[in-house]
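Backbone-to-sequence.
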């Protein structure tokens, strides 16, 4: 513990949010900054990253460190750590938020698209969590907040790989949380239902039925719930009352009912093959 603290002597603890330049990640950055945490946002598009950082400064009065990095690259943790050290910071809380969606029938998705999804949603979350946790445990503080999805609770026909990847994130998070319990390090999974961000449009799902049927939350509402749940040390955080109802229902209803229902909700206008 002593050596671990010495390693970061003179540095301040920071929250690092992957995919913090827009959507849920940006709202989380705002929430952490408002609560007084030193915060860094990570993304690939430098222009949007700089705009996000400037907007955060204007809204909160605090500086967010902008780190230009593709977190699915193998050296991402080194790039992040080096950028933090240059700003007099060290990684205290890791928010694995950057994620990729893919809509449409599985057989129509290319191997390249599927590999990119697995690389970001599964491999990157695993690698960054593994890289960050030992020092957190040695210091007995900090934590990891993994952004999963309510979709983790059920198979998602027409977004099959995406839903499966989020099920992995929740399982990994809950299992590690159990392994490290009592050592002062938080480990949470956030399971938002639909949120109003560009995510759906980017994966070509904006006109899917669920976008009309399920009321979306704002990124700010999700961030408030996430921050509160993480600070309380909740292992699974489901933002919104309606989503908590769905979360419970999805755990108890049999797949023979819920999978066709999801198939219907996730169907895109031109995907006429039903359940
Ligand atoms: N929106 C929803 O309805 C919803 C619901 C449940 C769960 N989620 C989950 O919430 C998370 C955030 O979703 P969102 O809706 O806020 O997404 P979004 O609006 O599309 O934002 C994605 C963010 O991730 C960054 N990003 C993407 N790939 C990256 C990479 N390889 N390296 C670094 N940054 C990367 C993007 O910036 P650059 O493109 O510049 O890199 C952007 O800042 C995702 O994990 C998603 O699965 C979303």
């Amino acid at each position: 513990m002593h050596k671990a603290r010495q390693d970061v002597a003179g540095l301040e603890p920071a929250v690092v949010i992957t995919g913090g330049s827009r959507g849920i990640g940006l709202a989380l950055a705002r929430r952490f900054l408002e609560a007084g945490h030193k915060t860094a946002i990570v993304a690939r598009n430098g222009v949007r990253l700089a705009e996000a950082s400037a907007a955060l400064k204007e809204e909160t009065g605090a500086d967010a460190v902008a780190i230009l990095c593709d977190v699915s690259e193998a050296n991402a943790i080194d790039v992040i750590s080096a950028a933090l050290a240059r700003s007099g910071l060290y990684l205290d809380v890791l928010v694995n938020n950057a994620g990729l969606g893919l809509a449409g029938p599985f057989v129509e998705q290319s191997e390249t698209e599927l590999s990119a999804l697995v690389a970001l949603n599964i491999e990157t979350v695993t690698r960054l969590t593994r890289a960050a946790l030992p020092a957190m445990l040695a210091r007995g503080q900090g934590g990891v907040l993994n952004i999963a999805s309510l979709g983790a609770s059920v198979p998602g026909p027409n977004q099959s790989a995406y839903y499966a990847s989020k099920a992995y994130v929740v399982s990994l998070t809950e299992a590690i949380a159990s392994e490290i319990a009592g050592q002062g390090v938080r480990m949470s999974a956030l399971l938002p239902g639909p949120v109003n961000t560009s995510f759906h449009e980017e994966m070509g799902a904006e006109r899917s039925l669920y976008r009309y049927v399920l009321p979306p939350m704002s990124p700010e509402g999700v961030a408030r719930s996430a921050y509160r749940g993480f600070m309380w040390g909740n292992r699974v955080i489901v933002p919104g009352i309606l989503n908590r109802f769905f979360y419970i229902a999805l755990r108890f209803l049999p797949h023979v009912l819920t999978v066709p229902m999801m198939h219907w909700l996730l169907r895109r206008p031109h995907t006429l093959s039903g359940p």
